[in-house]
Give the backbone structure.
Amino acid sequence: MTKKYSKFLPTSEDFNLEHFPYYWVTQVHAQYVQNVDHVLKKYGLDNSRRRILLALKSKPNASVSDLSEMVVSKMSTTTKIVYRLKDEKLVDTYSCEDDARITRVILTEEGEKMFYKINDLTNVVLEQSFEGLTPLQIEKMMECLKHIFKNLAH
């Protein structure tokens, strides 16, 4: 273990939870999800389904596997969410022409409408979360998070 990171790790003698970066990552994420879930309640949705709709908006005709990777969720969980959205008529599924084992997902017209409705609501939460930060600070934070993700992903 290198000393330069020791104060940030729970194995340190003088460990303080507030110095542990992942404490703050999980705190921020949990609070964000709680706030988003609260505003989405108006439409009977939750953050998990919002994330799938958002992923589909950015990658139309994605496979369930693609969606699972995009939202960092287990395949079984993603499949359940997709079929729940299908029951709600927000998405539709079809078998891939090249490989029938692959299920592709598309937003329905209702799903498109819902995407825009919930996007407006969740933008309020996003703006609230970034209050007091400059765009440059937000970009730097995102660079750091992407770097950490790449370190963990290999």
Remarks:
- The CA atoms of residues 13 and 112 lie 52 Å apart.
- Helices lie at 21-40, 47-58, 64-70, 75-87, 109-129, 135-153.
- The first strand starts at residue 62 and ends at 63.
- The mean pLDDT is 92.
